Amino acid sequence: MAREFLVELAKCKISVVTDLVHALDGDRSASPYDWAATVHQELGQNDGNATGLTALASYYLSHLVIAFRNPGGKRTPQESIHPTPNPKHIEEITSLLESATICQSQSALRDLIFLRDGSHCPVSNYPFFGKDRVIRPRCAHIIPFSAHFKTHTHHAIETLAWGIEVRLVDHRWKYRFREVRPANVSATIPLKDGDEIEFGKGTGGDLIGLPDPQICNLHLAVARVFAASGAAEVFDKYLEDDEDYMT
């Protein structure tokens, strides 16, 4: 992605910017904080043609940020919640996995989550079952089904596949909660930035794979770019102005 931006910067046809881009391409030790301000200043003062750069930013906004912000696809069913399933054979889990991934069955996905993580939410620690103070289970699609066959979206996702929040420690994956926009974190989540999230505490925890570390790290990376770029504020304003959003 960095190389793509350098190529588009060179097309702005400002000599100072072009020279800086060529220098950066050969010297990766240069601090972004030093040259980014220079590039921005030159573009503003010399009427540089930033059309290509704007188009590139729009490309990643459309095919990466928006795809993660608004997954679309099938929603988790809202029917009544049944107790945690307890399959006795590995074949039953295999069947659930096939239904969840190939047939995109939300009920099968939810049953797998109950089996893997138990009857309490790993993030809020609230129970899914009972009469008082329960929460409705939500099975989030970090990479939505709706983007499954979109080549441009896949390319954008592959380009930004980085992150450090899921790490292998002593041959075991460690999942840590990270705050990107603290003011937007639900009040039902007691975890603080850096706290560990424990998956796999259910009866089938040893038989069902944990969340994919690469996809978790990718989602966090997109969320951070989304917030740092200012795009999050634009989306918030859009939702506030959308009178039909709550319904």
Give structural attributes:
single chain, 247 residues, 2 domains, 2 strands, 3% strand
How would you characterize this protein structure?
The protein is mainly alpha-helical and 247 residues long. It has 2 domains: 2-69, no CATH class; 90-140 and 161-241, no CATH class. 46% of the residues lie in helices and 3% in strands. The chain is built from 9 helices and 2 strands; from the N terminus they run αααααααββαα. A two-stranded antiparallel sheet has the order 1-2. Helix 4 packs across helix 8 (213-228) and helix 5 (90-101) crosses helix 6.
Quick rundown:
With 247 residues, the protein is mostly helical. It has helices at residues 2-10, 15-26, 32-45, 51-69, 90-101, 106-117, 151-159, 213-228, 231-241, and strands at 166-169, 172-175. The protein has 9 helices and 2 strands; from the N terminus they run αααααααββαα.
**Largest pleated sheet:** 2 strands, antiparallel
As a percent range, the share of strand residues is under 5%
Number of domains: 2
Helix content: 40-55%
Assign the structural class, choosing from mainly alpha, mainly beta, alpha/beta, alpha+beta, or little secondary structure: mainly alpha
What overall form do the CA principal axes indicate?
A: elongated
**Helix/strand order:** HHHHHHHEEHH
Low-confidence stretches: 72-81
The tally of strands reads 2
Task: Please describe the topology of this protein.
Layout: H1 2-10, H2 15-26, H3 32-45, H4 51-69, H5 90-101, H6 106-117, H7 151-159, E1 166-169, E2 172-175, H8 213-228, H9 231-241
Antiparallel strand pairs: 1-2
Helix pairs in contact: 1-2, 4-7, 4-8, 5-6
